[in-house]
Specification:
Number of strands: 21
CATH topology: Porin
Number of helices: 2
Radius of gyration: 24 Å
Structural class: mainly beta
Strand content: over 45%
CATH architecture: Beta Barrel
Helix content: under 10%
Distance between the termini: 23 Å
Length: 432
């Protein structure tokens, strides 16, 4: 979850010349001296049923000098707590699970979705970027990224170029980025598709520890990501601007979630064991993004569509709608609607059947399953003196996982294998 800043639009000429839709392209203004702009935000995200909740704060600073060069700095700190689904199936009787570290266990009530209540993390992220004109037609930018959690480190860098054509009414963009991530989960990396061991099944702590350690591999692992983005933004007239972008991403390395499980059940739907999931060690993603903004009698309509597909056989469609309504004296309202639909990965399964061969790759993580999500929200903003702005955003989010055609045996047919997730998002922003 990231805090996102959206600029205000105050007129038809502003729409045509300043609100370029590709995020790497900044509107140009006549600046005679260096200026600093600051953005601060705080966001709360909370799911129902005591699941995941997050509190995130952000502070950003942008310095623009007389040569139209910009330095941008952003610090983000967030804290996540709550309970996260493990991927194991619910049962008609209580279930006991070993904690990821191997130290201790927790029990899930009959009929409840198994949730790992040890989910807790704090992330600190710093982004820095520099953008500068090369000449009248070319701009370039570069940036670095570092993010650190308790068990996760991410380092990245990017570079981009933009070319203005047709009296600056057309802008071509290209960007390249790379990331290197290291994960060090508490308890080590589980061996793929090995069975979770339980302390109560062993007569001594030493015997349990020996069995638990046999399910562990290395203490850490890594993954790399390479991204390429190309796009075009086009001013149609004084009231309409549109853009089209294509992005490619190649991810290699450890892509499995070390905390997720998949249950093996018998013909009665009774879980016989829980295996640690396993995902392929590479993923190739393609995405097309189209966005159009229109200035309509003092208001701004913003519509976007994104299509993504990858070699895990996941396809997704996202439709995003915003309408910025100005009602005088610097006040505005911005309704927001978003719809997202996703197909399941080719190795996704809510459970495995006993007696059948275990596949090479398997995951019951609902985030890789078939689903629809809906977001409905409203943002209120107000301009203050000296180009200051304050805004508040409230949104309701619903996630609806769907059955992708799996026949639930025995008791599983009467249990909720695809529970809905509902959440509330509240965000406060201050620009000065």
């Amino acid at each position: 979850m990231q805090l996102n800043k959206r600029g205000k639009i105050s007129g038809a000429l502003a729409v045509a010349s300043q609100v370029l839709l590709n995020p790497t392209v900044q509107a140009k203004e006549e600046i005679t001296a260096a200026e600093w702009d600051y953005d601060t935000a705080i966001m709360y995200y909370g799911e129902d049923d005591s699941r995941v909740s997050a509190l995130e704060g952000m502070v950003g600073a942008t310095r623009t000098n007389g040569d139209d060069q910009t330095l941008s700095l952003k610090l983000t700190v967030d804290s996540l707590t709550g309970a996260s689904p493990t991927g194991a199936v619910p049962q008609n009787e209580a279930q006991t699970f070993t904690r990821p570290s191997g130290n201790g266990s927790y029990t899930v009530a009959p009929g409840d979705t198994p949730l790992d209540d040890t989910f807790k993390d704090t992330r600190v992220q710093l982004n820095a970027s520099w953008a500068s004109p090369i000449n009248r037609d070319w701009d370039w930018s570069t940036g670095v990224h570092i993010s650190k959690e308790y068990d996760y480190l991410s380092l990245g860098a990017n570079i981009g170029f933009s070319r203005s054509l047709n009296q600056n009414n057309t802008v071509l963009t290209m960007g390249l980025g790379g990331y290197f991530d290291t994960i060090e989960p508490e308890g080590g990396i589980p061996e793929p598709l090995t069975a979770m061991v339980l302390r109560d099944n062993f007569t001594s702590e030493a015997a349990y520890r020996e069995a638990f350690n046999a399910t562990r591999g290395e203490s850490s692992d890594t993954k790399t990501t390479t991204e390429l983005n190309v796009g075009i933004s086009q001013v149609i007239n004084r009231w309409l601007i549109t853009s089209l972008n294509y992005s490619f991403a190649q991810v290699d390395g450890y892509l499995t979630d070390p905390f997720k499980l998949i249950s093996v059940v018998d013909d009665d739907g009774v879980a016989q064991q829980n295996l640690y999931e396993n995902r392929p060690d590479s993923r190739t993603k393609h995405a097309l993004f189209w966005q159009t903004k229109a200035y309509l009698n003092g208001q701004v309509l913003d519509i976007g569509y994104r299509y993504m597909f990858d070699d895990w056989e996941i396809q997704s469609h996202t439709i995003d709608f915003r309408y910025n309504y100005q009602f005088g004296s610097g006040h505005y309202l911005e309704p927001h609607l978003r719809f997202y639909r996703q197909s399941e990965a080719d190795f996704y399964a809510p459970f495995l059947m006993e007696g059948q061969s275990v596949p090479t790759y398997a995951s019951a993580d609902y985030r890789l399953g078939k689903m629809n999500t809906y977001t409905v929200g409203l943002k209120y903003g107000m301009l203050l003196n000296n180009s200051q702005e304050v805004s508040v955003r409230l949104e309701y989010y619903m996630q609806q996982p769907e059955d992708a055609g799996f026949s639930a045996p025995g008791q599983l047919s009467g249990l909720d294998l695809y529970p809905d997730v509902q959440a509330v998002i509240l965000q406060l922003n201050y620009h000065f």
